[in-house]
Each structure stands twice: as structure tokens, then as C-alpha cells.
Amino acid sequence: MNKNKRTIVIAIMIVMFLVAFEGTVVTTAMPTIAKDLQGYNLISLVFAAYLLTSAVSTPIYGKFSDLYGRKKTLSIGIIIFLIGSSLCGLSQTMIQLIIFRALQGIGAGSIFTVTYTIVGDIFELSEKAKVQGFLSTVWGIATLLGPFLGGFLIDYLSWHWIFFINIPFGLLSIFMLKKNLEEVIVPNNAKTDYLGALFLTIAIVSILLTAFSNSINYKIIFLILAIISIIIFYFVEKKSDEPIVPFDIFTRNIVLVNLICFFIAGLLMGIEAYTPIFTQNILGYNPTISGLTMAPMSISWILSSFILSKALPKYGAKNIIQLSLLILILSSVCLSFLKVNTSIIFLIIPLIFMGFSFGGIFTTSTIAVQDDVSADRIGVSTSTNTLIRTLGQTIVVSIFGGISTSSVTNYFNAIGMNGITSENVYSSKATTIQIQNAFYNGIHNIYSILFIIAIACLIISLGIKNTQLKK
């Protein structure tokens, strides 16, 4: 890897760290922010606004990067993200913070997808696995450092600085990209598919609102709206000269790989969301130990990228994905055997193997969806894969949330303590052991479902054609 490429990778990792860090540090700072701005009832909207706009903008940025170039598209996205961050830091009310978080999310959509597209453009196959493994691992590092650095900024400065700190690093990454990323853009007179973008936006927002909503009636309304929007979007795209999502990119391999990514992204989110709860609420460890428990998974994810750089060209995407899924299945089985009094080491060991499997699946799938399309479709293919992962995380983890909360309630109903839920359990008359058992009941059910999801994905992978990846 030459100096130019190293600088580009560093720039991409910096900006990727910013969006990953923002996700974890805002979670840590939210109680302080809500108290200062007096808006506890609006906390969920601070996260929802960011998630919605980043998801919606992802496929649009992918198309723009194909039409107008990666450097320009990513730089614009970073600038929007930094403007949103600045305004978030200056917010005086929760409503302002929600609006500016939405703006921040619009910028983040570019970073989520164009960074991986640039890697697909400029690196050889053996290098792609390493670099994309590095990018994926940035999220794990940000998850570990976010709470510590966020806590430091809040304690010694103020919560405003968790947003302001993004600005110098974001500007540095733009400068590094401008100086080192060279690309040839073929002039074209393509018209932007605004109508397609509109109906895609309505469809994505409706799908996410279906997942977020607690009301069955609202879920049905949003689901119907999503279906109608998808149908209209399909016909609009078929007639468009430059569709936001060209349907001819959906080869058999890309469809199957994206379907696997949808479920595995949800599975990963389940691990990241509920393993800390298992560590703290069931095993009784503090948040610091809980965070460190997840660290080995990030480390093994990094190591997987070095293995993949050698294995991918030799064995192909299908074999790597299937081996990774087999490891994931065995790891999920180990998690399902955990008990209330299990030693933490028996939790860490399967997480280490899961890091290898997640690295294998996500890195290989990104390379596979880029490899199966022409150079002028890499951006939109990568962004579609990113969007599908986001939808998988949102939809599957919302299902896990329902399973967890209902399992806690069912446990207490079964022992004759009606009316106790996950929301009021700590203010109830339940004993510590009963609370541990209730949470264990919910998370054990989730871990068992992880095994079923991994099996289903292995079956899906049988349909992938093991074509030779391009150098």
C-alpha cells in the first residue's frame, strides 16, 4: 500500500470513527442533555431522527457518487455532518437538537456508504479485505472509547463538546481526501431522479416507523404506506433514465448476499444491545467490565481481515460466507447454554469467535456486491447493501425488544407476580434473584433465536454462486 492510499485510508477511518463515536457518545450523554434541555419525553426522537435521515440518504448518496464522483459526494456529506454537529452543540431546546440531529444524519448517510465505495474503487482484492476490516472495526473501537471520552468531555467541559469535537477531525479528513484521492469523472447530462428519491424516502421512513411504533394500528398504516410506496417506486425506477436504484444490479448473488446481511446485521445488533444487559443485569458486573467484555469481539473482527486478504482470492465469497455462518451457528449454540451463574469467560469465548464470523460475513459481502456490478454501479450497489443492513438492524432489534420485554412479563406472571414489567421491575417487590431470572428468561430466548437466524442464513447461502472474485 503506497503513501497516497495509506493517507486515504486514514482519512476514511477518521471520518468513520466520527459517525461511530457520535452514536455511542450521544447515548452516554443523553441523560445529561435531557436534564439540561428539559426533554426526557423526547429522548427517543433524538435517536430516531438521526437513524431515519441517515437511512434515507444512503442510497441517494450511492447514486450521486456514481454520477458525480466519490470525493465530491463524500466531502459534501462530511460538511453536512459537521454543520449538523455544530448546530447540535449550539442547541437550546430538545426540538432544536432533534432537528439538527436529523441534519447530522443526512451527512452521515454519505459516510456510511461512500467510504466503502472508495475502498472498492482503489484497492486490489487482497487489500480490500484488510481495509474494509479496519473500517468495520472502527465501530468496535468507537463503542469502547465513546463512553470514556464522552464522560470525560461532559465532566470537564460540557455535553456541547461531544458535538464540537467532530469539527477539526472532519475538516482534516476532507483536506486529506482532497490532496490524495484522484478520480476521473466522465461528464454526463444525467437528470437526477427526484421522483424516485421521494418514493424511496417515503418507503424507508414508513418501514422504520413500522418498526418503531408501539401501536398495532399505526404499524398496519405505516406498513400499507410502505408497500404502496415500494410499488410506485418500482414503476418510477423502471421508466427513469438514471434510477436511484437500478434494478438490474440485483443479480442472484447480490439478492442472496443482501438477504443474509439483513438478518446478520439484526443478529449483530442483538448481540451488541443485549450482551451488556446480560453482563450487568444477570452476571452483576459494572458497565466498565461490560464494555470490556465486548472488546475481544472487535479484536477478532480486525484479525479476520488479515485472514480474509489471503483466503478470499483463493476460496471465493460463497465458501468464506458459509464458513463464517458455521462459526456463528456454533457460537450461538454456546450462548444459548449460558446460565445465571455462568463464569464471564464462557461468554467472552463465543464472542471472540463471533467477531471472526461477523468480519467474514460483512467484509466478504461488501466485496461481493461491489464485484458483481460494473464500475459505474459500485456506489449504488454498496449503498443498497448498507441500507439493507440498517433496515435489518432496526427491524430485527425491534423484534428482539418485544421478545425481551414480553419474556420478563411472562416470567413474573408465571410465578404469580402479575403487573411487573421490564419498566417497573426495579421499583417492584421482586427480589434480586427474581429480577436476574426474569432478564435471563428474555435474553436466553433472544440467544436461542440467534441460532435459528444463523441456520436460516446458512440455508440461504447455498444458493450463492461461487464465482471467482475480480482482482
TrEMBL record:
**GO cellular component terms listed in the entry, alphabetical order:** plasma membrane
Where does it localize?
Cell membrane
**Coiled coil location:** none
Q: Which UniProt keywords apply?
A: Cell membrane, Membrane, Transmembrane, Transmembrane helix, Transport
Q: How does it sit in the membrane?
A: Multi-pass membrane protein
Q: Which residues cross the membrane?
A: 7-30, 42-62, 74-92, 98-119, 131-153, 159-177, 193-212, 218-236, 256-277, 289-308, 320-338, 344-369, 390-412, 446-464
Indicate the segments forming the Major facilitator superfamily (MFS) profile domain, all copies.
8-468
SUPFAM superfamilies xrefs: MFS general substrate transporter (SSF103473)
Please tell me the species this chain comes from: Clostridium uliginosum
Q: Which InterPro entries match?
A: MFS (IPR011701), MFS_dom (IPR020846), MFS_trans_sf (IPR036259)
Would you tell me the protein name for this molecule? Drug resistance transporter, EmrB/QacA subfamily
Quote one Gene Ontology molecular function term: transmembrane transporter activity
